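Form 7-S
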Amino acid sequence: MDTLIRYGFTIDEVKLMMDSISFLFSFEDKTIESLLHFLEALQCDEDIIKNIFICNPFCFTKDIDEIKKVIEKLMEYGIKHFATLLDSNPYILNKTDKEIENFYQKKIKEGYTIDKINDMIFSIV
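Output:
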């Protein structure tokens, strides 16, 4: 938790996250730091990262490699603006790469274009 406080989260923001996921305090600082650095590498600024963590503290429960696979899958379909995506749809981090693939394949079969599906990705959970 010290990492979140050092990063600029207030005590109230940390408590809000802990209300959703009570075992948040048990995560090692190294795990949290890895996720912070990964999100920063995706051009997420401090406000976006706070939004992601506060809206979706369950992202802490996912292994960073699983999150990377989700991002890689989205990249395969042309998603580029991850800061915008994660700010508008932080819950996408709860998905697996296979769920993302299945979603795209289902929508393609329904006749949607990749561009239209990408638009959907920015607004749905």
